[in-house]
Design goal:
Blueprint (H helix, E strand, L loop, with lengths): L1 H14 L4 H14 L3 H17 L3 H20 L3 H17 L10 H15 L3 H17 L3 H17 L3 H9 L9 H17 L17 H14 L3 H12 L9 H17 L3 H15 L18 H12 L4 H19 L5 H28 L3 H13 L3 H15 L4 H25 L4 H28 L10 H11 L1 E8 L3 E8 L2 E8 L2 H12 L4 H6 L1 H14 L10 E5 L28 H4 L1 E4 L3 H5 L10 E5 L12 H11 L2 E5 L5 H7 L5 E5 L2 E2 L8 E4 L2 E4 H5 L7 E5 L7 E3 L3 E3 L1 H8 L3 E5 L5 H18 L2 H14 L10 H4 L2 E4 L8 H35 L4
Parallel strand pairs: 1-4, 4-5, 6-7, 6-8, 8-12, 12-15
Antiparallel strand pairs: 1-2, 2-3, 9-10, 10-11, 13-14, 15-16
């Protein structure tokens, strides 16, 4: 009956409306007066019609008004993805039609603030920061104190959510003594400031909070709860929590905030070992988010949506399980929700931050399986653990690799082409934004770039949804243990994959014979062994000044990392992780030694060919090769400067002798020349300077009078078999769990390089030149990059013209090869093969001719007379 009345009212209103603009406002007001799922459905149908008809700016503004109210309703009813989509459409409509010139409609209050909050709720922190900073800038421009403060509060909430408490303190402290703030805003800023101090252990007692601060009773007791929780006083924390609850009007809380409150209570119960209370609290939290669900045990993936509170609930519930399968099933639900969230993200930065939580969860899953395996040995369990280790290995690189494979398969697909163009634009804009922020440019320039990034992100999300519908097979492929073992058998190889956790390093060793899992206790002593070994390569003198210290450390670490188990194999695929990414495994020693002669030391390189990879999935990946072996060489040289690389001329000459190549030297080795020519070559060689970056700047590589930063490198589109980075620290950068080092090498992998040879530290110009000359001499003969890299190191150690000091692993083990394992193809063997085939064909022809002649003779004598 209500529905009939609503339809009658709407028809009546529409009949007396004079134009489309009024129709839109009437439809919106009708919805506002009676909000429910039925009226939402009706409004959505009308919206679809209005969007087709709207042409004038006033009609577009009316549509923005409709969409903002619709978005608010969707948000309140936990339809977060749909709410984000509608607010994004409203914002795009407002900007495209320049509606700020038409009306003083408060786009900040109606759209930007709720959109920024939604991004934060769904973990899209990059877009959240961009949007919030945009409306803070607009508010400052219009001297709108209320919106400026709202922006500051929401930015502080965002930074608090991501654990950036120092940033929250700096942000809120500047507002504590500001005038013209209303009471509610003042309380929010004060509370955020206090909570950050508590998190940083700057406040350890309620009495440390100044009494002059005007705070609510709820906040006072909540602060006490947080302090007691931080100090591990769980009984006192529970008391404070229960008192704080009495000051909450639950009916005034959104479903999400109420669910988080129940979760906090469950978490506290778990800490107090009240497991039944913890389960009850989690059930309440889940039922608040999903009113139709009876209990957590009846949950189905189809009921879930992109909401990070689910992850917290399932993670805690997993810890309450006694059965390992049940525990894993709840962690799997967390992974599922994490993927739902990530499906709405477009920035690398955001995806990287998500990996940290997923990695902690993966470690717990691996540990559960490891403990179960001790009671029930079963290789299937070990492979399941291995899959958890692989789950968050280089996820961004895998995703980008799949995009490139799909585009190469369907090169004329308009959706894929648009996506590739936007991804390139996103990275270029990100690079510009980073540079502008470093240069302390005007706020208007930075805001404009942030706005551009947000618009690109919205377009990418729309495209992604369309592409996923068109190509449902797109996704990170799973592989079977049989596939891996068959390839290892063919390659005469063993695979050693590490998972560098918080408490342990897990090591998987897989061969055609089976799978093994070991747990290495990551105690302070182990951490020190790893760190100290890496620092042995800080400068050339460290090893040579104390050779015995090096040999002891190299053999000790060899044992810690359980590498003796792989010695029977000709080739070893190493998948490092965490700090292990910076270890040159070839320079470890397989046995004790007292010799100071480096060429006689039992280095791993003497025993095995080491090939690295970022993930087993990349080892298994079948690449479509660019069969040409033409090489592009970039050699800035930097002559007559303090950064001169005079020996790189020798590299260039060696390459010219061995390879079909195009070389750009000195002032020709510009960034522009590299960008223009790089897509046309199967091999790229860069002999230059590079840096791993620092806290404020990303990894970068030098060209003649110009620098290329990491995000600009991401924007390239390469179809390159091999990239050789004959430069310092090209494999070093900020380390992210799951994704590895944000290095120049990773930039080339993201851009499309299938195989990369790069360095782990600042390398010597002369020894680099010698290694590279040997590498290309071998490569021109065997066409195998991994074999050539291995052989170049052996050649260097055997070279009698090189002094013992210069044979320190500092000089030869910096270069590591990441990519496919290819068997050498000798040119001389090919010649002999062709000669043999030619001789065989001649003999075959002669035999056939003799047989034919003999056959004719028999036919003649057999004819009757």
């Amino acid at each position: 009956m209500k529905k009939l009345g609503l339809i009658f009212f709407l028809i009546y209103g529409m009949a007396f409306s004079q134009n489309l603009e009024e129709n839109i406002y009437v439809a919106t007001e009708t919805f506002i007066s009676n909000q429910n799922h039925a009226s939402l459905k009706l409004l959505s149908e009308q919206e679809s019609t209005f969007k087709k008809q709207a042409k004038s700016k006033s009609e577009q503004l009316a549509l923005v008004f409709l969409q903002c109210h619709k978005g608010y309703y969707l948000d309140q009813n936990s339809l977060l993805k749909e709410a984000i989509s509608i607010f994004e459409d409203a914002l795009n409509r407002f900007k495209t039609n320049e509606l700020s010139k038409l009306s003083d409609f408060d786009i900040i209050e109606s759209c930007l603030i709720p959109l920024g909050n939604l991004y934060t709720k769904t973990g899209d922190y990059t877009n959240a920061e961009n949007i919030i900073k945009q409306y803070i800038f607009l508010a400052e421009k219009n001297n709108h104190i209320k919106h400026q403060t709202s922006g500051t509060i929401n930015l502080a909430i965002l930074y608090k959510t991501t654990g950036k408490y120092e940033t929250v303190l700096n942000l809120t402290s500047s507002y504590l003594n500001k005038q013209n703030l209303n009471k509610q805003q003042k309380q929010k800023i004060t509370q955020l400031n206090i909570e950050s101090q508590i998190a940083l252990n700057a406040i350890n007692n309620v009495s440390d909070i100044p009494k002059t601060i005007n705070n609510t009773p709820y906040n006072q007791h909540r602060n006490n709860y947080l302090i007691q929780l931080q100090n591990g006083n769980y009984i006192e924390a529970l008391k404070a929590f229960n008192v704080a609850k009495t000051h909450i009007y639950k009916d005034s809380l959104s479903r999400r905030k109420l669910a988080k409150l129940y979760f906090e209570e469950a978490q506290l119960s778990k800490l107090l070992n009240n497991l039944n209370e913890a389960k009850n609290g989690l059930n309440l939290a889940l039922q608040t988010l999903l009113p139709n669900i009876k209990s957590i045990g009846s949950i189905n993936k189809s009921n879930l949506y992109a909401e990070n509170t689910f992850i917290a609930i399932f993670d805690l519930y997993a810890t309450l399980q006694k059965n390992y399968k049940s525990a894993l099933s709840y962690y799997d639900l967390s992974f599922y929700v994490s993927r739902l969230l990530e499906n709405n993200w477009t920035s690398q930065e955001n995806k990287r931050s998500n990996q940290a939580g997923n990695r902690i969860r993966s470690e717990k899953c691996i540990d559960i399986i490891f403990n179960e395996y001790q009671n029930t040995p079963n290789d299937t369990l070990l492979f399941t653990a291995f899959q958890y280790a692989e789950l968050n290995k280089s996820g961004i690189l895998k995703e980008q690799s799949l995009k490139k494979m799909l585009l190469s398969k369907y090169p004329n697909d308009n959706l894929l082409l648009k996506e590739a163009h936007l991804l390139k634009k996103q990275e270029k804009t990100t690079n510009l934004l980073i540079n502008e922020q470093l240069g302390k440019s005007q706020a208007s320039v930075i805001t404009a770039l942030s706005s551009d990034l947000n618009e690109i992100s919205i377009k990418l999300k729309i495209l992604k949804e369309a592409i996923n519908k068109k190509y449902p097979e797109l996704g990170v492929p799973n592989f079977l243990i049989d596939d891996l073992q068959n390839k290892l058998l063919k390659d005469e190889a063993v695979l050693v994959e590490y998972f560098y956790g918080k408490k342990n390093i897990y090591q998987f060793i897989i061969s055609n014979d089976g799978i093994n899992l070991s747990k290495i206790n990551l105690n302070d002593a182990t951490k020190k062994q790893i760190s100290d070994f890496i620092h042995l390569f800080d400068t050339a003198s460290v090893i040579n000044n104390d050779i015995s210290k090096f040999t002891t450390a190299a053999f000790t670490l060899y044992n810690i990392l359980n590498l003796a188990k792989m010695t029977t194999f000709k080739n070893a695929i190493i998948i490092p992780d965490g700090l292990l990414n910076f270890i040159p495994f070839e320079a470890l020693l397989t046995s004790k030694t007292n010799t100071t002669n480096f060429s006689k030391m039992p280095f791993v390189v003497q025993k095995q060919n080491i090939i690295y990879n970022t993930s087993t999935a990349f080892y298994l990946k079948k690449e479509e090769k660019n069969n040409t072996n033409n090489l592009l060489g970039i050699f800035p040289v930097f002559e007559k400067t303090k950064n001169s690389l005079i020996h790189s001329i020798d590299e260039a000459n060696a390459i010219k002798e061995e390879m079909q190549s195009t070389l750009f030297l000195k002032d020709q080795a510009t960034k522009e020349a590299f960008i223009k020519n790089s897509p046309d070559y199967s091999i790229i060689h860069l002999s230059t300077h590079a840096s791993s970056g620092d806290f404020s700047t990303s990894a970068n590589i030098e060209f003649y009078k110009n620098t290329m930063f990491l995000n600009e490198l991401y924007s390239l589109n390469l179809n390159t078999n091999l990239v050789v980075l004959s430069a310092c620290e090209t494999g070093v950068g900020a380390l992210y769990k799951g994704e590895g080092a944000m290095s120049i090498a990773r930039g080339f992998q993201y851009a499309g390089a299938q195989n990369v040879l790069f360095s782990l530290w600042q390398i010597n110009d002369l020894s680099t030149s010698q290694i590279m000359q040997s590498f290309y001499k071998n490569y021109s003969d065997n066409k195998s990059a991994n074999t050539s890299n291995h052989q170049s190191k052996l050649d260097y150690l055997k070279d009698d013209s090189i002094s013992n000091i210069k044979k320190s692993p500092y000089y030869w083990s910096a270069f590591v090869y990441y990519g496919e394992l290819t068997k050498p193809t000798s040119a001389s063997k090919l010649i002999y093969a062709f000669i043999g085939l030619f001789i065989f064909l001649i003999i075959l022809l002669l035999l056939l001719r003799v047989k034919k002649i003999n056959g004719k003779g028999k036919d003649t004598t057999g004819v009757p007379s």
